[in-house]
Amino acid sequence: MSVALASNIDINSIRKDFPILDQKVNGKPLIYFDNAATTQKPKSVIEALSEYYSSYNANIHRGLHTLAEKATTAFEDTRKVFQKFINANEVEEVIFTKGTTDSINLVANAYGRKFLEKGDEIVITAMEHHSNIVPWQMIAEEKGAVLKIIPVNKKGEISLDDVKATVNKNTKIVSVVYASNSLGTVNPVKEIAKIAHDHDAVMLVDGAQASSHCIVDVQDLDCDFYATSGHKMYGPTGCGILYGKRAILEEMNPYQGGGEMINNVSFEKTTYNDIPYKFEAGTPNIADVVALKKAAEYINNIGKDNIMAHEKALTAHAHERLSEIPGINFYGTADDKVSVVSFTIDNVHPYDAGLMLDAKGIAVRTGHHCTQPLMEHFGIDGTIRASFSVYNTIDEIDFFVDSLKDIVAKFS
User: Fold this and answer.
1) First-to-final CA distance of the chain
2) Helices in 17-157 by DSSP H: which ranges?
3) What is the pTM for the complete model shown?
4) Catalytic residue, candidates 214, 223, 239, 370
5) Which CATH class is domain 11-38+303-411?
6) How many CA atoms lie within 13 A of 273 on its CB side?
7) pLDDT digits (tens, 9 = 90+) for 27-81
């Protein structure tokens, strides 16, 4: 029998909202613990996609006919929902992108290319996803800037003292993950933003993992940019947002050229559109952006506080039960973390464990999780990562742990 861990959550009702969960994998009921890679989608999101394509498929912003106006309204309604979802000061500060990776690349190119100079410093942490490392390496190489790294301790945390020691008068950009996809660690991004601003640097927050697990208030965080992906918060793949403060966005050059991002085009000169459209060249991912609104509304309807309480209890139970396994090594034991449990087991390769769990219908992620420098820091090739969401249950965790015990026994 499934157990609801937050009093305001009806877990059985929630699970019915996700059609994909009602299936068997390799003859076993699906247990989906790969939510840090991508979350499953509720019926409201799936139906919104279908409705757009079957009822009002049309290009937006440039048409006066009924379908175009309906599509434009639906598209822009999502922007309004996300302004409130992250508490942006203005709706124009919400830019639609392909996701977090695209958003970070936009900032690296549109801000970094214009404002970085030789010898300037970009600061990130040792726990960053590759998408918050590689774009900065590329722009640093191009501009002659220097990439500085804030270290991570044994618990998978960063120290504000280390932040203060790393950020200095040469720092121009600080880019930090809100919640680590590999460790689950929630970083003190508000405090880091203040340190960055004290040195006249801008602050970008990678919110890919945080947006469905943490309260997000960009005005309270006082970050200059906030990037997130729809597919990690019950929305479609290939869409997300970039938040940026108006004053900074208006100073930046466009990231890409084409339709929509222009005001007037001639062969002699092109003038650019206002924000946010200046950064939304070409026909956007209309259907997925429309459906993304339903994902935000789904989270709001359940309540972030309820989701967080449920996931916190699941994570605590998983840590307790997994600790029963001999030879287990946890990575990411920060006091403040989201619902990610990352570990290795002595004498059991993560890939072997992943395949054997899949045979039992259990989906986990194994490998370096696009955080190779972090894995190198811990002296490992990768981990087994179980990541939980609002539709997961105590019973699933218990079956998962019992299955791991069987696997460990075969290797002993």
Assistant:
1) 32
2) 43-55, 66-86, 100-107, 113-115, 134-143
3) 0.95
4) 370
5) alpha beta
6) 18
7) 999 999 999 999 999 999 999 999 999 999 999 998 899 999 999 999 999 999 9
Q: What is the CATH number of domain 47-300?
A: 3.40.640.10
Structure tokens at 376: 């190198």
Is 47-300 in the same CATH topology as 11-38+303-411? no
At residue 3, does pLDDT exceed 50?
no
**Angstrom distance (rounded) from CA 110 to CA 94:** 16
Beta strands of 178-316 (E only): which ranges? 202-206, 225-229, 240-244, 262-265, 270-272
Measured CA to CA in angstroms, residue 276 lies from 49, 61, 243, 260, 261 at distances of: 23, 13, 10, 10, 9
Domain boundaries, the chain: 11-38+303-411, 47-300
Is 239 a residue of the active site? no
At 81, list the tokens: 């929902």
Cis omega before residue 151 (within 30°)?
no
Beta strands in 189-339, from DSSP E residues, in sequence order? 202-206, 225-229, 240-244, 262-265, 270-272, 328-331
**Tokens standing for residue 152:** 């991570």
Dihedrals φ, ψ of 348, to 5°?
-125, 115
